[in-house]
Design a protein that fits this description.
Elements (H helix, E strand, L loop, with lengths): L4 H45 L5 H11 L3 H4 L2 E4 L2 E4 L27 E2 L5 E4 L2 E4 L16 H10 L15 H4 L4 H11 L13 E2 L15
Antiparallel strand pairs: 1-2, 3-4, 4-5, 5-6
Helix pairs in contact: 2-6, 4-6
């Protein structure tokens, strides 16, 4: 009679191994579920603890990521090279810096900038970056929220004045929502007012064939 013990032993071993896989597999799934639950709970806890930003705080964030300081805050030479002069933050082109006539450029060169990055010569003319501080005499201290929003939406100084000249990218900034623009305005009301009278821009004559010159300017 054929010995069936080895076969039975093999079947028993396979059965025990299958049971082991089921038990350990269930344990692993349970551990993973617990880990996932802890992770989700941690995310929920973190979200719950994060305070909502005030309009001014959000405005500061928007002004930062939009790089407004790159042009509206004068640059100076520091120990490590050019750096923003934050004592004049967002105050525009320094009134004490009288600019000479811009250099004449031949194509493909067409843009020249001051060392402070606050004065620019383009085919549209010479533009000086504006004083965005809440100084009532030389900044936007007298502007209300509506005037500020109209200036960005229309690309016009004081909302309905002269064209805003390049390189001010108002065409892109106007894509902000009303709430975003209100937040930017709220933030600009909180920064220190700086008395700095920025020169008026020098607008170039319209190119031939553009009578009246419907060019977009800074």
């Amino acid at each position: 009679m054929q010995n069936t013990f080895p076969k039975a032993l093999n079947r028993a071993a396979m059965l025990l191994f299958a049971v082991f896989l089921i038990v350990t597999g269930s344990g692993l799934i349970g551990c993973n579920k617990k880990t996932d639950n802890k992770s989700e709970a941690s995310k929920d806890s973190t979200s719950a603890k994060a305070p909502a930003m005030s309009p001014a705080e959000r405005g500061k964030y928007l002004v930062t990521i939009a790089s407004c300081n790159d042009c509206h805050t004068p640059w100076k030479m520091g120990p490590q090279g050019p750096e923003q002069d934050l004592t004049r933050m967002l105050s525009g082109h320094p009134e004490s810096m009288k600019m000479p006539p811009p250099p004449k450029m031949n194509m493909p060169w067409m843009v020249a900038g001051a060392a402070t990055l606050t004065a620019w010569s383009t085919p549209a003319g010479v533009a000086y970056t504006a004083n965005l501080t809440p100084d009532s005499a030389t900044g936007i201290g007298k502007w209300d929220e509506t005037t500020f929003m109209l200036a960005i939406r229309n690309g016009k100084h004081i909302g309905n004045g002269r064209p805003i000249m390049p390189p001010m990218p108002w065409e892109f900034i106007k894509q902000m929502t009303d709430e975003d623009l209100k937040a930017v305005y709220a933030y600009l009301r909180t920064i220190p007012p700086i008395h700095n009278q920025v020169p008026e821009p020098i607008m170039a004559p319209p190119p031939p064939g553009m009578a009246g010159g419907d060019m977009k300017h800074k």
